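User: I'm preparing a small set of examples for a lab meeting where we compare how different chains pack in three dimensions. I only have the primary sequence for this one, and I'd like the structure in token form so I can line it up with the others. Please keep the answer compact; I'll paste it straight into my notes.
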Amino acid sequence: MNAISKFREYMAAKPLDSRVFMIVLAVGSVTALFSAIFTIIEGVGAGASISTLACVVALIVISVIAFVFDKEAICHILLCFVLDFMLLPVAFFFCGGIRSGMMMYFMTGLYIIVPTITKKSVRLIMYVLAGVALSTTFILAYIVVPDWVTPMTDTAWYIDTIVSFVLNAACIYCVSSLTVHAYNEQYKENEMLVKKLESMTVHDELTGLYNRRELFRMLEDDVMRAAVDDLYCMFMFDVDEFKRVNDTYGHVFGDKVLREVARCLGDEVGSVEEGEMAARYGGEEFVGIFHDEDFDESYRRAEVVRKKVESLRFMENPEFRVTISGGVDRCNGMRPRYALRQVDDLLYLAKTTGKNQVTRKM
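Assistant: Understood. Below is the structure token output for the 362-residue chain.
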């Protein structure tokens, strides 16, 4: 199980084209091995057995060069040359030519080997060369040196065709299905990465709350355009004497304090779909947007946040207490900077008149 997990981790670390190439080599090696075994069983001849076994050895050697010695780019082209231009044409002569299943191997080779080359121009050249190699093989086999082709009996031809069809069909199916599976995994990974990047653009990395840019977006798109009777309230606060927290207990503990304070705010604020938002405005400053029926309810919720913060306890520093000071006021229909300046003045008033309190416009 451990070996399987390690192999999955190894595969996951590879890009999609490397995974596909690895699949082609693995499936191709197994198919070539079964083909060699059946060739030996059928008793077609020593030349046929040797040439099909040579395909197996070639695939294994190329796999080692590609992934052990990290020469994958070269091996894409090497695989085409060794199989499509050398070994398969040679095997064609020893395995009965047209009166065998060799045509299936030629077609399968074109289908699963050449497409592994990622560069379009090189792939096109390989298709042309493969076509030339195939045509040349036919000309040599049936016009120039027809005696070189080892004939098969009708029975052997029938059996070889069935076996070749089954092996090639299985090979194409495995390569196709495993490639689609690898593509789907890559797609999911990319989708998760995109979601993560999208989240990073709107959320604060430390606290997980929305960031300042997203706060301004909501204020401009929703709050500023809100009707007079559609009440939005803004609650701005900061952590009292936070510099002392960092100086006394260190920045790691200071970050934990900010995360816990952010959690207290986030627990009390609804979702953006509900017209609410919890955001980190900067440093130790936070903003909550409330969307309530009346102002008193928004003020009450701001007080809930303050009391939750005041009740926070930290195991590593049991004696430490954290408090916040802030201000809350209506903000619907206001320009963002004016609304922020308004609650910032209330925050300053809370700071200068005792701290650990939430002030409101009287």
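A couple of notes for your slides: The CA atoms of residues 63 and 69 lie 9 Å apart. Strands lie at 233-239, 277-282, 285-290, 324-330, 358-360.

User: Perfect, thanks.
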